Amino acid sequence: MANPLRKTMVYLGLADEDYDEAAEQSAAPVSASAPAAQPATSRPAPVTPLRRAAAPRPAPAGMNEILTVHPRHYRDAQTIAESFREGVPVIINLSQMSEPEARRLIDFASGLSMGLYGKIERVTSKVFLLSPEHVAVSGDQAEAESDVDAGFFDK
Predict the structure, then answer these.
(1) Measured between alpha carbons, how far is residue 32 from residues 35, 42, 137 in Å?
(2) Rounded CA separation 8/29 (Å)
(3) Given CA atoms 109, 113, 114, 115 in this order, what sign does their dihedral have?
(4) I need a surface site. Which of 9, 90, 125, 146 has the fewest CB within 10 A?
(5) How far apart are CA 109 and CA 126, in angstroms?
(6) Are 103 and 96 in contact (CB under 8 A)?
(7) ∠ Cα 25 26 32 (to 5°)
(8) Hey, is 67 helix, strand or coil?
(9) d(CA 10, CA 6)
């Protein structure tokens, strides 16, 4: 009787139908006392770590700029991402965008800042600051904490 797993693989197109079952069955059984011989060509596969160590990036030498962006469409996110990856703080003014696109852009900016160990802060209802990990932002924390309960785009 044929192997059900083999039949399924053939059905899904993952194996060929002209498989020689007789060759598999006539293979000599491996004895329990003899260790299984490894083929000479098999080597352990290289392993890529899933997480990198969170080593802080050094601040760019002579950082002396902050980029201000007034996006009109979501495609302007590329400019924001390129500058932020280079370690430049970015101020995003969303006053010229529609609300759905502005929400989408803020979601993107939040993921960008989280992925690069930066920080995103709301300055006003439609203005946000993306600061890289090497930039410290000081300000009135009490005022910022009082806005937490408000909706993202309340007027």
Answers:
(1) 7, 22, 67
(2) 25
(3) positive
(4) 146
(5) 13
(6) no
(7) 85
(8) strand
(9) 6
Report the predicted TM-score, pTM, of the whole model to 2 decimal places. Answer: 0.52
> In a 3-state reduction of DSSP, which class is residue 25?
helix
Residue 149 amino acid letter: D
Task: Please give the C-alpha separations between residue 90 and each of 7, 82, 86, 115, in angstroms, as whole numbers.
Answer: 58, 10, 11, 15
The span from the CA of 89 to the CA of 65, in Å, is: 8
Span 56-92, pLDDT tens digits:
555 555 567 888 889 988 888 888 888 888 888 999 9
Could you give all domains of the chain from N- to C-terminal order, each with its CATH number? Answer: 67-146 (3.30.110.150)
Q: Which residue has the tokens 């050094």?
A: 58
Task: Please name every residue paired with 127 in a beta bridge, in sequence order, or none if there are none.
Answer: 93, 124
